[in-house]
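>> received
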Amino acid sequence: MVQKYTIAIKYTICIIVLTSLLSCVQSNQIRRSVYQQPFDHSLADSLLAYALDHEALYTLADTLKPMSSVKFLRYAIAKDSSMQDGDAVVIQNDSLINLIDQYNAVCKALSNDIWQFVMVPFQRTEKHMRNLEIYVIRKAQFAQTIKQYQSFFGQWGFTPNTNPAVVLSVIEYETKWDRNRAYGYLFGYPAYAVDFFVEANKIQQADINKKMVPRHFFAVPVFAGNQGYFTYAMPKTHQPSALDSAIYYQAKQTLMKYQSRRAAYSVPSGLKAKALWENIR
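>> returned
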């Protein structure tokens, strides 16, 4: 009787162990299916190469910019202005939708606990053209910015724990001034520069001649060039402050580090951007 009882216990233990092992295997398969979906590696390298050579360097390898633009896309998938509600033309552009899906797969593959890549369709369309933008977000700095300007972002119920993709999807379809202010903060521009940009644009819009308010531009260099990328407007009378200088010199240190390592990852077929990013981040 005791022997039978002992055998039954051993059998039960074996069943539990086997069930546990099977559960682990299934769990690992689920993880692979969720986090290791197939994606176009050359497309990912191309995306990261452009990002690192431009202002996204300060999101990918620094904390200066809570988020940065990575790639602008423009496809003939929008509803034409002559079409009625409920009509659709996307069915005729399956190849474009498939290309967008490839970019989404790359965004998913490159995202992790620190960075998030998202694609946001623009609200405004031009006839049958739809503009989309891929952004990279440094999650901790993005959340910190939401907290810093909580009195502004709180009007939508956004908190530091709100998914950045939700924030951007809502902001893109908001009023012009709120949209400009939100992007200004999230792109890492100083508050005074964001205030100036929004108010100057309001003045310009109200002016019968649409005359631009006089301004200077503060440009932070990137690998691709010294101006026109990480750049923000400031009042004509404003002298660069200690804050502006701090941004500039921190960026220069990051850029110098990037420049010193970039050549080692340049090959005839292009830049091995993913490997380079893993080395400098």
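>> Residues 1-35 have pLDDT under 50 and may be disordered.
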